[in-house]
Specification:
Elements: E1 6-11, E2 18-23, E3 43-47, E4 50-52, E5 64-67, H1 90-93, E6 105-106, H2 108-114, H3 132-181, H4 187-191, H5 207-221, E7 226-227, H6 246-293
Antiparallel strand pairs: 1-2, 3-4, 3-5, 6-7
Helix pairs in contact: 2-3, 3-5
């Protein structure tokens, strides 16, 4: 290299790199050293962790030409084809087809499948409302419907939050790329002649807040799975002493006394019904004979 300054260059072994130490009383730059100019304005002198358009004064070391790009990436233009999935909401409105015949658990899906929606009683002319047990079961069904609808809404909010996060990241990448391409003109704001607050670019990141609210919605509407454990008859035996064998004897005696009382209460009714039936049969048999023996007496007229 023709520089007009003192220089000391050593070629590295098995390499085409020429290491030079230059000394001059004035600033040294790639142009002063008659180094070939980069063919494009995007090339930089990369020296270790630093990049220069012009080498600093009294510089020494090894550099190479290269591109300088910000930490950004471009998504592939052709992505894998995604199959659209239709959301199945039939269990919310029309019940579920799952069978729970072999279990005692009653989740919301089973409640909706078992109980139909509430309706008026068409056979009742005066009162169209159903009995209290019917209405209570429909309230339980409504509770299950609310839980399923809330869970579906929360899941939809999570999907929307995920899509918003992806859109936010893509928009920020596009903004960064446009600022980089238009850096000579002052970035995107400089090209559009935007100053002050008009150039402020901000996209709120509320995805996590949406997910937290969705979780709270599910926790509020959640009802633990109900398990049918049969009729609770413990109140009949809780008052008995917990002694081995004694409880069984007392229960047997109690059952025997209950049967005796029921028999004593039903026997008079049975006897009364039996007597009434026999009396009706006898009266039906004797009434035709009495009517046949009846004869009207002749009447004398004056």
């Amino acid at each position: 290299m023709e520089t007009g300054v003192e220089h000391n260059c050593d070629r590295k072994r098995q390499s085409n790199i020429l290491h030079c130490e230059l000394y001059a009383p004035f600033d040294i730059s790639p142009y002063a050293l008659h180094v070939p100019k980069p063919q494009t304005r995007w090339l930089w002198w990369i020296c270790g962790e630093w990049a220069y358009k012009q080498l600093p004064p009294k510089w020494s070391g090894t550099c190479f030409l290269g591109w300088v790009l910000p930490p950004m990436w471009i998504m592939p233009t052709s992505s894998a084809k995604r199959t659209r999935r239709n959301a199945d909401i039939s269990h919310i409105a029309g019940g579920s087809t799952q069978s729970w015949s072999d279990t005692d658990d009653w989740p919301p899906e089973r409640i909706i499948a078992y109980y139909e929606p509430a309706s008026w009683n068409p056979d009742e002319l005066i009162q169209g409302a159903r009995d209290p047990i019917y209405n209570l079961n429909r309230i339980i069904r409504l509770q299950a419907v609310v839980e399923l609808v809330t869970n579906a809404t929360a899941q939809s909010l999570r999907l929307i939050a995920q899509q918003l996060d992806e859109s936010r990241a893509a928009i920020l990448q596009l903004k960064m790329g446009m600022d980089y391409v238009l850096a000579r003109q002052g970035g995107l704001c400089g090209v559009l002649n935007l100053t002050g607050n008009a150039c402020c670019f901000n996209i709120s990141d509320n995805g996590e807040a949406i997910r937290v609210l969705a979780t709270k919605m599910e926790s509020i509407a959640h009802v633990p799975v109900q398990i049918w454990e049969g009729w609770d008859m413990g109140w009949l035996t809780n008052w008995l002493p917990n002694v081995a064998g004694l409880k069984g004897i007392l229960l047997s005696c109690l059952f025997f006394l209950t049967v005796v009382v029921m028999v004593l209460c039903t026997v008079p009714c049975i006897i009364s019904c039996f007597r009434s039936t026999i009396s009706k049969m006898i009266s039906n048999e004797t009434l035709p004979h009495i009517m046949a023996l009846y004869r009207a007496l002749p009447q004398e007229y004056d």
